[in-house]
Every structure is written in structure tokens, then in C-alpha cells.
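Example 5.3 — tRNA pseudouridine synthase A
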Amino acid sequence: MRVALAVEYDGSGFRGWQQQPGGGTVQDALQEALQQFARVPLHVVCAGRTDAGVHALGQVVHFDTTLERSMYSWVRGANTFLPPAVAVRWAQRVPADFHARSSASSRHYRYVLLNRMHRSGTWHGRVAWHHHPLDLQRMQEAAAMLLGERDFSAFRAAECQAISPVKIMQRADIRRHGDLVVLDFVATAFLHHMVRNLVGSLVAIGQGRHHPQWIGELLASRDRRLAAPTFPAAGLYLIAVNYPARWGLPTDDASDFLSLLPVTGPATAATP
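Solution (predicted C-alpha cells):
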């Protein structure tokens, strides 16, 4: 039997998703919890490997087992043994040819940036911070150039192992909610550090250091050295992994996450 799980986690205290020597990863925590519940080792495969400090509300994994358990039991059992910063949201039996990574049609990442003079103590590790005023109209104009099929080599980390840098960007939205600037990206797949590198360059444009057309120039250059530095992991969330309807997975993508943040004003496209 193949089972899919949706997992959410606060990545602040983990060394990223991927299992590695010395432990301390989200995958380690999840597999240990499943083993304690099932009393046999279980290996999970994820939809997207998140880096150290990156959070997730809708990470999807799958594993194979010969054990007969209800889906409710898998959720309750895993959560009983997981640390407080990790929780399973749902479990679903899936066909044997389902694959958490290769069956996905798109991923939704959100970057949350606190844009005010002083940093936050309460939201340390959960949002990034930038103290210079940002022009959202310039950032939105630049983000529009990311849509469609593009070669994102200029926003690719040197250690990225993806076969191709060409991805299809389906959505690139930027909004302001009070002191928060929220950047949403949906694409077929993402390169290593791609979102954080995009945010760095969009912020440079919003700050007035470059014109909006600079994004197009970076895409054409395919040169990572020309783009802005990588932004911190703290503000990045894997909101959802989307699948074709034929797999029958739940569609609650946790996109209402913004309501959990300390928003202090209506959404607007203009810089206050």
C-alpha cells in the first residue's frame, strides 16, 4: 500500500528537509515518528526538499507499507511521536504509481517580508526583514516578466542538481498587508534557492537600485553572478504542492496562511 501525507513544519530548528548524517532534519523526525508508530522502518519521499530554516504548510510525502491502518490512524499515530514543530495534516491512500515529486503539477511558495524600520522579535525566524521602503509597483512590473516558460539559470544556486533550468512560472504576485510584503510564486518546479534569489532581485528593484526591466535582462543573461544576493530562508514557506485531480488528494492548500500573521491594514498594491 502506498500512502501520501501532507506535512507542515516550522523549519527554524531543522537542518532542512533532506536526511543527512548527524540527523536534525525534518525527514529524520518524520521517519522516526512513523517507525515508532508502525514499529517498522519506513522511508518517505517528499515533493520538494526545503533548506534549513525554510517552513512548509503543505509538504507532501509518500511511503510504502504492508501494514493495514486507517488514514486517521496514520495522522494521529505520526503526530503522537513528532516534535511540536512538525505535524501531519492528512493521510491518503494512493495508487502504486503515485510519486510525491514526479506526479506533482506545480508548487506554491510564499515569501513573507517584514518591511519597516525595526525588526520583529516575536516573528524572528518566521519572516524576513528589510528596512528600506519598497516600491511595490516597480516590483510587480518586474515580477510579470517571470511568467511563462523561462530559463531561470540567473536565479539558480551553484549546487543545484536539477536537470534543466527551464521552468514554467504560472503565478508571480506581490502584495502589501500593513508592514508585510507577501510574494507568491507558483511554478511547475523550482530550482535550488530560486525563490530566495528572485526575492533578492525584486527587492533590489523595489528599493530603486535597478529598473523593473532588469529582471528580463537577468533572465536573458542566465548568469547568477549578475543577480542580487540570496535572501534569508526565514521568510520562505512551501504553501502547497498541487496534483492532477485523478490522484484524488485533498485540495486545501493552506493559502489562508496570511490570516495567521500580524496584519495591520488592508492589502494594497501601492507603497504607503
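Remark. The helical segments are 26-38, 71-81, 136-143, 194-206, 214-221.
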